[in-house]
């Protein structure tokens, strides 16, 4: 169960986020604060696992609060909740778990809670993030959100469930850099996050993997590596 503080100087937004979180069975205590100072007082007197922070608040902003708690020996997870798309870079530099845009969608909030639970269960470090430029705005996306990467000349297109982003890095470089993160080359044009693969088709003369709604080719050159990965993860009866 997750104990949270939601911080927003706009009371309707505070109430709405509290209502949405209360419908999630994984959430236990929900503390509400309308200022940064109030949020810090709650942190001193209650065990808190995560903060949902608005960015623009008088006196202490959400970014200020995140900087303060980053010095804690065991800081709670931070999710920023804001109408400002332009502060994502600063947010992820502060090791934010997620960055939600207002009005908050239930499915995105559910995903944020899932990420918080993962960190609590595994004691894992905050996942790696990638900086991408889109429409003149720098955005940060988590590497574990990337389903597959498609080569486009000297560029690579990162595909997530919701969008795609073009970065100026050749696919060969990403293959080397992301091998330890579970990305495998399936074709000269594709690098796939194997934990995102939902189906593998190994027919005569043709092979492919299903990632979300995309069916991606597997070349003969890379087929043995894919087979080896599947064999390594196959469940076997106990001896």
Automatic annotation (TrEMBL):
The keyword Flavoprotein does not apply. It holds the Pfam family LytTR. It comes from the Bacteria. One of its GO terms (molecular function) is DNA binding. The modification 4-aspartylphosphate is found at residue 54. Residues 3-117 form the Response regulatory domain. The keyword Phosphoprotein applies. Coiled coil: none annotated. Residues 140-232 form the HTH LytTR-type domain. InterPro entries: CheY-like_superfamily (IPR011006), LytR-like (IPR046947), LytTR_DNA-bd_dom (IPR007492), Sig_transdc_resp-reg_receiver (IPR001789). Keywords: DNA-binding, Phosphoprotein. This is LytTR family DNA-binding domain-containing protein. It comes from Arthrobacter parietis. The lineage of its organism: Bacteria, Bacillati, Actinomycetota, Actinomycetes, Micrococcales.
């Amino acid at each position: 169960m997750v104990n949270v503080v939601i911080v927003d100087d706009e009371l309707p937004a505070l109430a709405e986020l509290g209502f949405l979180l209360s419908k999630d069975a994984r959430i236990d205590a929900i503390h509400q604060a309308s200022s940064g100072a109030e949020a810090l007082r709650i942190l001193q007197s209650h065990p808190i696992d995560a903060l949902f922070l608005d960015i623009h608040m008088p006196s202490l902003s959400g970014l200020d609060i995140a900087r303060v708690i980053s010095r804690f020996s065991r800081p709670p997870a931070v999710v920023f909740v804001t109408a400002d798309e332009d502060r994502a870079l600063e947010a992820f530099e502060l090791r934010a778990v997620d960055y939600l845009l207002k009005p908050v969608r239930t499915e995105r909030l559910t995903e944020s809670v899932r990420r918080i639970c993962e960190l609590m269960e595994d004691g894992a470090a905050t996942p790696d993030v990638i900086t991408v430029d889109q429409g003149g705005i720098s955005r940060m996306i988590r590497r574990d959100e990337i389903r597959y990467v498609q080569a486009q000349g000297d560029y690579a297109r990162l595909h997530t469930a919701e969008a795609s982003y073009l970065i100026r890095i050749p696919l060969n470089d990403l293959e080397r850099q992301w091998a330890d993160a579970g990305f495998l080359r399936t074709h000269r044009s594709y690098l796939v996050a194997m934990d995102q693969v939902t189906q593998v088709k190994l027919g005569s003369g043709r092979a492919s993997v299903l990632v979300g709604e995309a069916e991606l080719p597997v070349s003969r050159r890379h087929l043995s590596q894919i087979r080896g990965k599947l064999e390594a993860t196959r469940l076997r009866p106990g001896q």
